[in-house]
Structures are given as structure tokens and as C-alpha cells.
Amino acid sequence: MMNYQDMIKQMQTQFGNYATPFHGVNSKMLEHWEKMADYQLDMARRYTDATLGNLREASDVQSPEQLQSYLQKSVEAARETSDSLAKDARTLAELSQAMTEDLQQSMREGASNLAPKSSKAA
Predict the structure, then answer these.
(1) ∠ CA 76-46-97, rounded to 5°
(2) Measured between alpha carbons, how far is 103 from 28 in angstroms, rounded to an integer?
(3) pLDDT single digits (tens) 64-112
(4) Biggest distance spanned by C-alpha atoms of the chain
(5) 86 vs 43, 79, 106, CA distance in Å?
(6) Are 2 and 87 in contact (CB under 8 A)?
(7) Tens of pLDDT along 45-65?
(8) Any residues with CB less than 8 A from the CB of 15 and at least 6 apart, and which?
(9) Could you tell me how far CA 82 lies from the centroid of its own chain?
(10) Which of 92, 114, 95 is nearest to 103 (CA)?
(11) DSSP class of residue 1?
């Protein structure tokens, strides 16, 4: 007959077998979310700095020549921003794809660890 302590140990062992794969998947998700958040914060910082810089330049315009120069710079800045947005969209898609692949791999590994081990006959 199994006593209470043995029953608790058995439950902990069984729980550990099932929790380990989930721990791996959760760790991978956290790692990827952190990368994605870091990248998005960097993006926000870059675009905010560019916007504020553009607003500062606009507030300094005091003559028709400065206005013409500002407008020329604005066209170039818009092109650079468009290029940056396209690059950032590609990078975010790549980060998302890497997360999907990593999670699928972790789930496959976890599922194989949960599969009952076949016992070989002696």
C-alpha cells in the first residue's frame, strides 16, 4: 500500500514529465517576445526621434530659402522613412517566422518526450 509521501512523489514525477515540454515552449515564446519588444521599442524610438527632428527643423524655418531647403529635406526624409518602414516590416516578419519555427520545433520535441517509451523485452 502506498503511503501519502510516496503518492506525492509519484504525482510530482508525473507532473514534471508533462511540465518540462511546456516550460521549453514558454521559454522560447518569452525569448522571442523579448526580441520583438526590443525591436519595436527601437523602432518607436527611431521614428519618434525623426519626427521630432523634422518638427524642430520646421519650427526654425524663417525665410523662403529655408522653406525650400526644408521641403527638399522633407522629401528625402519621407523616402528614407518609407524605406525604413519596409525594412522594419521585413525584420518583424522574419522575427515572427523564427518564433513560429522555434515553437513548432519545441512542441515536436515536447510531444516526443511525452510519448510513452516502448519497453524492450529481455
Answers:
(1) 105
(2) 7
(3) 999 999 999 999 999 999 999 999 999 999 999 999 998 888 888 877 7
(4) 95
(5) 12, 11, 30
(6) no
(7) 999 999 999 999 999 999 999
(8) none
(9) 22
(10) 95
(11) -
